[in-house]
Specification:
The complex is a heterodimer of chains A (373) and B (266).
Chain A (H helix, E strand, L loop, with lengths): L12 H4 L6 H23 L9 H26 L7 H17 L1 E4 L4 E4 L4 H20 L7 H21 L12 E2 L4 E2 L2 E2 L3 H23 L2 H11 L1 H6 L4 H28 L1 E2 L6 H14 L4 H24 L6 H22 L3 H15 L5
Antiparallel strand pairs in A: 1-2, 3-6, 4-5
Chain B lengths: L5 H5 L3 E12 L2 E12 L3 E5 L6 H8 L7 E6 L2 E3 L4 H7 L1 E4 L11 H7 L9 H6 L2 H21 L14 H13 L5 E5 L7 H17 L3 E5 L3 H7 L2 E6 L2 E6 L1 H5 L2 H8 L4
Parallel strand pairs in B: 3-8, 3-9, 6-7, 7-8
Antiparallel strand pairs in B: 1-2, 1-4, 4-5, 9-10
The chains are: A mainly alpha (373), B alpha/beta (266).
Chain lengths: 373, 266
């Protein structure tokens, strides 16, 4: 009744190709953005429940934003281009450690190859770190030209284990700290030091908003259609002049760049101090589950999946407690596995496109409501 | 047979010719020593019983299979094999026997994907999607809308193709091939599995494409009525060998063709 596009006429193809061609959707988006950019910081500064204290920002919203970004990265590769990857953790780690090296100065004192870069400011460090991740992503994408599906997943799994090993064994990456754990440098952006939880939250929000917009632009443009064409029917795509080499490697490049940024943010903004374990195989699976549950081939799905995977354990912890039957930590973590696993099975059977598809089905129903068709 | 264009095409210039082309998969000879040509502006049918090597021939022409022997001359350039990318760039488009649409995409996106080669803006412009990148997208959308109007599929633009009925999928696939603005359009059984009405629609589209856009068409089809009505010249294959080549009337009365289709007493 309220969600109708009747009377909204478009007079140009540019308007027809907008991300949200329906006015109600645009209003909703601006409302969400306004709440995220203005509402949340205000509520937090006035200590309004549930934004009072640091818990909401530090433990829920910041990791939600960063993991959404990582999920967008994987969704480009797996959801849009159809290349299954289990190496998300590795690409995040490369982003994080490279950004760390660039921000603390890179010195390679070898005789045959000597390089010395002074410590760079924060933003170039993060972007260069992501670029490193992008280059490694292209390298590990090369096998995708020959192998597909599960076999490719195994190749990316090799990346995961290799970089786990590199960052825990090669001391150069951790600046020779005895424990192997490193601490993020000061988050100084053009003289403005990001410190409090609200500032950290806003920093992540800016990154995620920009990258989500750019990812959306890519997937609805020519390159996005090439990715989806390769995913859906690679032979037909090739005979239409789409080069599989270019399409697959750009998907790997863009995807690992985005995951590199997410990795750097995860390390610098969320963790602060971290060790290689932060980016192990569990992280890769966590992001893959987000993408599957949220919706393969959907930017919105990346956010929905990240929200679900992050909030599920918190709900399982808090709701029984509020009802007077507190669960132990072990029970909660087991329950998380059970629910996530069951949900993935259920989604794969009834709705392979995840929450994003459920959402668009709901919107279609809403357009007709209160009539059935 | 279409009488008006017949004589001029007979004298027309050759767009593509294959000479002495052979392709074998291990011991199976799919195509052996075949030569024929396709002239500019004609509708050329390739017919033959099942397993005659018709689809293999199309696959050779657009570079999906590489023949072990023979030459392919396209637009005056001779090579021993085509590459899919060169074929597409040179203006060869095709549809498939079993619909090969991008199932996860809408009809509109499928046809837009057909214009990939026309879109030159690089990744950085596409990320920003402003100025030239947006202009290019809109410009190509205009072309795609013309094709959508031509094929009368305006109402299914936004429908994911997996949800469309078979006849419409075939039509979207034709649209995707047309979006490439091809010089040579290869149609692999465009009417397979269609009812009479759908066949008539599709025949009309093929003729219109040929007339309005001047596209040269090579088609494989099993419905002899359709083949005889549409095509200017017919080449007949059997067991990978060319057994006849000529106008529909010539082919119809050829003894080797009759034997291949009806069988012959040994």
């Amino acid at each position: 009744m309220f969600y109708r596009e009747t009377g909204q006429f478009k007079t140009s193809y540019a308007a027809d190709m907008a991300i949200f061609p329906i006015r109600q959707d645009r209003i909703a988006l601006w409302a969400v953005l306004a709440f995220a950019f203005i509402g949340v910081p205000l509520l937090a500064s006035f200590q309004v429940w549930p934004f009072g204290g640091e818990y909401m920002l530090r433990a829920i919203l910041i990791p939600f934003l960063i993991l959404s970004l990582a999920a967008i990265g994987l969704n480009i590769l797996t959801g849009y281009c159809g290349q299954l990857s289990l190496g998300s953790g590795a690409f995040m780690a490369i982003g994080a450690y490279s950004a760390y090296k660039f921000s603390t100065g890179v010195h390679i004192p070898l005789e045959i190859f000597s390089i010395s870069i002074p410590p760079l400011p924060m933003l170039p460090s993060i972007l260069l770190g992501a670029l490193m991740s992008c280059l490694v992503g292209i390298l590990f994408g090369i096998p995708s030209l020959r192998i597909k599906g599960l076999y490719l997943a195994v190749a990316t799994l090799a990346a995961q284990f290799f970089f786990d090993w590199v960052f825990s064994r090669v001391k150069w990456f951790t600046n020779y700290t005895p424990s192997g754990s490193v601490a993020a440098p000061e988050l100084n952006f053009f003289g403005f030091v990001v410190n409090s939880p609200v500032e950290r939250y806003l920093l992540c929000l800016v990154f995620v908003t920009l990258f989500a917009l750019m990812a959306k632009n890519l997937v609805r443009g020519s390159i996005g259609r090439q990715w989806m064409a390769i995913r859906d029917m690679d032979i037909a795509a090739e005979l239409m002049g789409i080069r599989p080499l270019y399409a697959k490697l750009t998907a790997f490049a863009v995807s690992s760049f985005v995951m590199g940024v997410a990795g750097a943010l995860w390390a610098f903004v969320y963790l602060g101090a971290w060790e290689p374990l932060a980016f192990n195989i569990d992280r890769s699976f966590q992001i893959l589950f987000m993408v599957i549950i949220g919706g393969l081939g959907s930017i919105l799905g990346s956010f929905l999946g990240a929200a679900f995977i992050l909030i599920l354990p918190i709900l399982l912890d808090q709701v029984p407690q509020a009802l007077g039957v507190p669960l132990t930590v072990e029970t909660v973590s087991h329950l998380v596995f059970i629910v996530t696993g069951a949900l993935i099975c259920w989604l794969l059977i009834v709705e392979p496109h995840g929450f994003a598809r459920l959402w668009s089905t709901a919107k279609e129903k809403l357009r007709l409501w209160p009539y059935p068709y | 047979m279409r009488s008006p264009s017949g004589p001029e095409i007979a004298a027309g210039e050759v767009l593509l010719s294959v000479e002495d082309v052979s392709l074998a998969f291990g011991g199976v000879k799919a195509v052996s020593g075949i030569s024929f040509d396709i002239r500019k502006g004609e509708i050329r049918a390739i017919i033959g019983p099942n397993g005659a090597g018709k689809t293999s021939m199309l696959n050779i022409i657009n570079g999906f299979y590489h023949p072990q022997q023979g030459r392919i001359t396209f637009k005056g350039e001779t090579r021993s094999k085509m590459r899919p990318h060169d074929a597409a760039r040179g203006g060869i488009a095709r549809t498939f026997q079993n619909v090969a649409l991008f199932r996860g995409m809408t009809a509109l996106d499928n046809i837009m994907a057909g214009r990939t080669l026309k879109m030159k803006r690089n990744l950085f412009w596409q990320v920003l999607r402003v100025g030239p990148a947006l202009a290019e997208e809109v410009e190509n959308r205009h072309k795609v809308e013309e094709i959508i109007d031509f094929l009368k599929i305006q109402d299914i633009r936004r429908v994911p193709v997996a949800r469309l009925p078979y006849g419409l999928q075939k039509r979207v696939e034709l649209g995707r091939a047309l979006a490439m603005e091809p010089e040579l359009l290869l149609l692999d059984e465009p009417m397979a599995g269609m009812n009479l009405e759908e066949k008539e629609d599709m025949s009309r589209f093929v003729l219109d494409v040929n007339d309005h856009f001047g596209t040269t068409v090579a088609l494989i089809e099993h419905d002899m009525g359709v083949v005889m009505d549409l095509s200017d010249r017919v080449v007949v294959l059997d067991h990978g060998i060319k057994i006849a080549d000529g106008t529909p009337d010539e082919v119809k009365t050829n003894q080797a063709v009759i034997d291949a289709y009806l069988g012959v007493a040994h």
